[in-house]
Amino acid sequence: METENVRLLATALSIGLGVIAPALSVGLIGSKAMEALGRNPEAESAVRTTMILAAAFAESIAIFALVVALIIKFVV
């Protein structure tokens, strides 16, 4: 029974800690994109493309953390 509790704790910690950095990153990406658009509205297309690409890379880290959490929960 104790290994079950440890496994669930490890699952919760892996997803909980694994999404903190991507959440902060996406917030900072959006913030800096809005600053860039405020300074140079003509560059909207380039800023938007770069912002979406950077947000996708940040979210991929969260998806990786989810996969690790699922592996811990169901395989280990």
UniProtKB/TrEMBL annotation:
Pfam families: ATP-synt_C (PF00137). It is found in: Cell membrane. One of its GO terms (molecular function) is proton-transporting ATP synthase activity, rotational mechanism. The keyword Transport applies. InterPro entries: ATP_synth_csu_bac/chlpt, ATP_synth_F0_csu, ATP_synth_F0_csu_DDCD_BS, ATP_synth_F0_csu_sf, ATPase_proteolipid_c-like_dom, F/V-ATP_Csub_sf. Signal peptide: none annotated. Its main location: membrane. GO terms for cellular component: plasma membrane; proton-transporting ATP synthase complex; proton-transporting two-sector ATPase complex, proton-transporting domain. The record marks 59 as: Reversibly protonated during proton transport. SUPFAM superfamilies: F1F0 ATP synthase subunit C. It is a multi-pass membrane protein. Residues 9-72 form the V-ATPase proteolipid subunit C-like domain. It comes from the Bacteria. The chain crosses the membrane at residues 6-30, 51-72. Gene3D superfamilies: F1F0 ATP synthase subunit C (1.20.20.10). Keywords: ATP synthesis, Cell membrane, CF(0), Hydrogen ion transport, Ion transport, Lipid-binding, Membrane, Transmembrane, Transmembrane helix, Transport. PROSITE patterns: ATPASE_C. HAMAP family: ATP_synth_c_bact. Belongs to the ATPase C chain family. Key component of the F(0) channel; it plays a direct role in translocation across the membrane. A homomeric c-ring of between 10-14 subunits forms the central stalk rotor element with the F(1) delta and epsilon subunits. F(1)F(0) ATP synthase produces ATP from ADP in the presence of a proton or sodium gradient. F-type ATPases consist of two structural domains, F(1) containing the extramembraneous catalytic core and F(0) containing the membrane proton channel, linked together by a central stalk and a peripheral stalk. During catalysis, ATP synthesis in the catalytic domain of F(1) is coupled via a rotary mechanism of the central stalk subunits to proton translocation. This is ATP synthase subunit c. It comes from Candidatus Roizmanbacteria bacterium GW2011_GWA2_37_7. The lineage of its organism: Bacteria, Candidatus Roizmaniibacteriota. The gene is atpE.
